[in-house]
Amino acid sequence: MNETPLPGGFINEVVRIGDTVRRPLHARSPFVHRLLLHFERQGWRGAPRYLGVDGKGREVLAFVDGHVPARSSEGLAAVARLVREFHDLTAGTDLAGDQEVVCHNDLSPKNTVYRDDHVPFAFIDWDLAAPGKRIHDIAHVCWQYVDLEDPPVVAEGLRTVCDAYGLDDRGRLVETILWWQDRCAHGIETDPALAGLRESGAGRSVRAAHTWFTEHRAELEAALKPPPAP
Hints:
It is a single chain. The chain is α+β, with helices and mostly antiparallel strands and about 230 residues long. It has two domains: about 60 residues; about 150 residues, Transferase(Phosphotransferase), domain 1. Helix content is about 45%, strand content about 15%. The strands form three sheets. It has a five-stranded antiparallel beta sheet with strand order 1-2-3-5-4, covered by helices on one side. β2 and β3 form a beta hairpin. α3 crosses α5. The radius of gyration is 18 Å and the shape is globular.
């Protein structure tokens, strides 16, 4: 069968064969497969279905067709609600262990599949999924899906995500965004497996975003505070 390379990967070689996607196995594959099977048993269609391992030792996933649309407040809110769905499906399960939920840990537009009506309906690339705190994924969404513009515009985007998800504890949101950015930049700068990302300038982009959030941290945190009680 013909193999068509899929774009976007700096680490793994991912190909499409018919209605399936083939990806190399890695150390976390058993956990990811358990997670995807859990989603399937719960009837949640927001992740690819795990179909097994092929003759070349690659995991086989159902291909999820869609596109990446222009960003909007409605789309941002829909992403946050989709995150809330899989968080709630994993809360209290053995997959989450002693943590709140299972986090995707790499939520971004490139890992989101949208329908023609610009509504997100699935997340792909679950390789980094692991037990964690709800705010970890929410902070990653705020970093990756909200364009860096004027601070009031960014603050409105952060509020949109928090409101749609139902996140009450917003006091650590900007701090967690900065934590993600520093962690990702350090990984890109030091991990030999991420040489492709370094060469693409991704590390510099992450550091620039970290600088922006640091400079506007006080303003963003003030905008996220709830209004005073009447």
